[in-house]
Amino acid sequence: MHASRRTFLKQLGSGLAAISWAPSAVLFAESKATFTALPRSTPEAQGVSSASIQAFFDALATSNHEMHGFVMARRGHVIAEGWWDPYAPDLRHTLYSMSKSFTSTAVGFAVAEGRLKVTDKVVSFFPDDLPATVSDNLAALTVKDLLTMSVGNEKEPTQQW
Question: What is d(CA 3, CA 68) in angstroms, rounded to the nearest whole number?
Fold first, then answer.
């Protein structure tokens, strides 16, 4: 699907019928790796209410967020996808900070499973890889400090760029 934001949202109003259920363009076409596109399905077939997806888009339409694209997957199936002009599924995009989303989700799972706490000291996870002298700042560093990017730097590391 390739439409303006307004057209995209209007089309969504028709019960999500406008969202592509067929396999989209080859993902990662320029990559040397071989990827298999996820199968497509409908939201209801995968236990998701299309009305709830529509409610998300209704809320998005009144927000100040600029969306480039949207893909929702459940149980190994893509159940909703679409792009706003000028963006498209085959357009390469820089995804700043995307790994932070995955990392924080993984940490959330680990916390929920009781494997760690966000108050745990980072040095406790790497006892064999610590410097000979552990500074007070390193000793005090917690998982939460890393997740909230509040570790701090003596001076701004990107200033020179």
Answer: 11
Token duo for residue 82:
């679409």
- Write down the residue that tokens 């966000």 correspond to: 118
| Those residues with Cβ within 8 angstroms of residue 13's Cβ, 6 or more apart along the chain or in another chain | 54
Beta bridge partners of 72: 80
Q: What is the DSSP letter of 147?
A: H
- DSSP letters spanning 49-85: -HHHHHHHHHHHHTSSPPPSEEEEEETTEEEEEEEBT
Q: Are 68 and 4 in contact (CB under 8 A)?
A: no
The single-letter code of the amino acid at 161 is W
The token duo for 127 is 């006892």
pLDDT single digits (tens) 22-37: 333 333 334 445 557 8
Sign of the alpha-carbon torsion through 44, 47, 53, 55: positive
Q: What pTM did the predictor assign? A: 0.50
Statement: residue 109 has pLDDT above 70 = yes
Contacts of 75 (CB under 8 A, 6+ apart): 46, 47
pLDDT band at 9 (very low <50, low <70, confident <90, very high): very low
